[in-house]
Fold this sequence. Notes:
The structure holds two protein chains of two kinds. By secondary structure, chain A is of the alpha/beta class.
Amino acid sequence: MPSSRMRTAEGRIVCNEGHGGIFYRLEAALPDPVGFVPGQFAMVSGWPGNDPLLPRPLAIFRSAAGPKGKGTVEFVYKVVGRGTALLSGLHPGAPLSLTLPLGRGFDLGKEGRLYWLVGGGVGFSSVFPAAAALARKRADFEMFLGSRTRDQLPPKEWTPGGTAPGRLHLCTEDGTAGFFGRVTDAVTERMGLLSASEASRLTILSCGPWEMLKELALGAANRGVEMQAALESHMACGFGVCWGCVVALREDEKTAYRRVCKEGPVFDAREVVW
Amino acid sequence: MKPDLSVTLGSLRLRNPVMSASGTFGYGLEFAPFYDISRLGAIVVKGLSLAPTHGNPPGRIVETASGMLNAIGLQNIGVERFIEDVAPRLADAGATFAANIYGRTVEEYEEVARRLSGLPSLAAIEVNASCPNVKEGGIAFGSSPEGVSRLTGRVRNATDKPVWVKLSPNVSDIGSVAQAAEGAGADAVSLVNTLVGMAVDHRTRRPKLSNVTGGLSGPAIKPVALRMVWEACKRVKIPVIGIGGIQTAADALEFLLVGASAVQVGTANFRNPGVCVEILEGIEAFLREERLSGIGEYRGKLAL
Lengths: 274, 304
């Protein structure tokens, strides 16, 4: 049984390859298998030296038990700055330092819900594991993926098994694939067609850029739809001690700063001060 | 033979010289999943104020070359909750711990110190005379020898616990400030806190921190910290706790070599949660390798 206990681990890179020139899939061998809740993440580093100083938070994409009690973990990331650029230059066989699994993932526990999974950009890396978990539970879900253009959608082979054709909705802002427009527009349009009872049964699980999540949260709130949002933030530690990654949450009339790494990264969208 | 790692800070004996630095170690219990926290010389918990504090809005941190800037704004649970919820658990874990404190006024410092004095398990009080991110967070007192003297004296009289005064590097003469703390009754001084810095975005034309300026930490500041610890050690007789960019056993040993009695490890905890124990084991391995019987045979032995 893979352990979900938070720990540090020295891994070794098995694969770190580019896909479509935009996403990288990083797979590392670990001393023991890691259990995780979709939406949870790891702090990852492996480049030599002190610059950049801090590890990078990456959503856990997949994990598996390997032979002889060992494990593997996979991440999908996009090069956005120096840390991820250096990460993309690491070769198979290189050591990788990890702290994982971290944070609070998606709550997939409720029975009889209808789920819409919404991923913008590289946000699918949090949403796909949720889809895989829902498929295993035979839960009712649909998936919406958005990107600027067709080449920035995730490769087809990464789509989790159990995602029924016709229940995967692709959206591109330039209309080169699927729905012509932003994923928020596609989801908002679909929400408008729901009956009140359908809306009350729906939970949106989402990950993507702040503006996308914000718009989605407002639309969901208008229709009385529950929404869980996986947030991103600059963080130094990832396990709750630096207090650098906070987001403002609404708590009984007041607002409080809560840690994205600890109380999140998944938050009830109604509580976030967008 | 196993080298003697223990060190004394005035009346206090620590099992080894490796402590966590305040603000980088939460309340200590957060590290229990990674290792036995009772192994550390001491844990210095995140700065406590009289009432819980919300801290600054995001963005609170920015990475810089070999370092980082933070402007957290001393967000904390407040001294009462620390006493009720956290301290008993630290004691149960067998940890030696010190409380870092700050106030908006000298009276608040006194009151926080007074309340903590009733905690039998508390090893020491570290007075934050140097947070650069909150106007009232100590910098108002910490930037001159007179201010440090006044604050130290008042806290000294408010508690029977050992009082450590954490000093700011943002001063022109660290030796005078350290002497002021010593003269007012401090049991030790700890230095350095972060260096005031700034980061801006040349495209958006905006500061990267909501607070505009923040405190620089990490390996980038180590040479500055080492120089200041060396200077302070020459000027005071009380123990000096060295802080600033320590990431490895070698870094920690350098601070001991220039005269520090103990060290605190800060930002390195963010990049590697197990780093304090690695440093501890590294120091022990070094003493063995050099056939030294203990820290005392090495501390302050800089060959000039």
